Amino acid sequence: MSLPEPLQQLISLLKRFPGVGEKSARRMAFFIIQQPDAYSKELASLLKGLKERLHECPLCGNITDVDPCSICADPLRDRRLLCVVESPEDLLSMEQAGIYNGLYYILRGRVSPLDGEDLSSTEVEHLRHRILETEAKEVIIATNPRVEGDLTFYSLLSELDDLQVKISRLAYGLPVGGSIEFADRITLHAAFESRIEVKKNMRK
Fold first, then answer.
1. How far apart are CA 84 and CA 24, in angstroms?
2. pLDDT in tens, 167-178
3. pLDDT confidence tier of residue 200, bands split at 50, 70 and 90
4. What is the pLDDT of residues 53-100, one digit of tens each?
5. What class does CATH assign to 56-199?
6. Radius of gyration over every alpha carbon of the chain, rounded to an integer in angstroms
7. 10 Å Cβ neighbour count for 150?
8. Is domain 5-53 classified as CATH 1.10.8.420?
9. Which end of the chain is more exposed for a tag (fewer CB within 10 A), N or C?
10. If you ran DSSP here, which 8-state letter would residue 57 be given?
11. Which of 106, 183, 109, 116 has its CA nearest to residue 152?
């Protein structure tokens, strides 16, 4: 049985979502078309304006609709700590775990030779500026525990070597090959508590 072209187009678009296969996309598509017109109109309107209303925080790179984002603007955050993560999803996972109260910096890139990816000099400069601007005492590099995360970590370690700041990395708790995005609160807590110091060069 062939599906109507509009429905097949919707399924194809839904299949682009991470972790969504043919059956899941088809199930979601049928759910959408079976909803009242008001639901479809609201969903279409939201999607249409999403890219216009959301943007990156100019300070940390988090997804936000205000400048700066709520985390950077919070006066109660510990500005002595700066956690470097790979994506907004990683930031969200840490926030939901409720185990960290410092500031963040989201990398716009990673080191992955197989994919031809590398950290740009502009991105490194942005991070250095963020560290100096916040006068951070410790930078926690929270890249994911896989090959790309390791390469990104060592690249950052080299680029930040001359800064007078303590640098640490998340350690035990996060499985090799896993992602921060899918880690539970206990796993993240263990990783933070057992982070390993890789450089100690404190500000005077």
1. 34
2. 998 876 677 677
3. low
4. 999 999 999 999 999 999 999 999 999 999 999 999 999 999 999 989
5. alpha beta
6. 20
7. 15
8. yes
9. N
10. -
11. 109
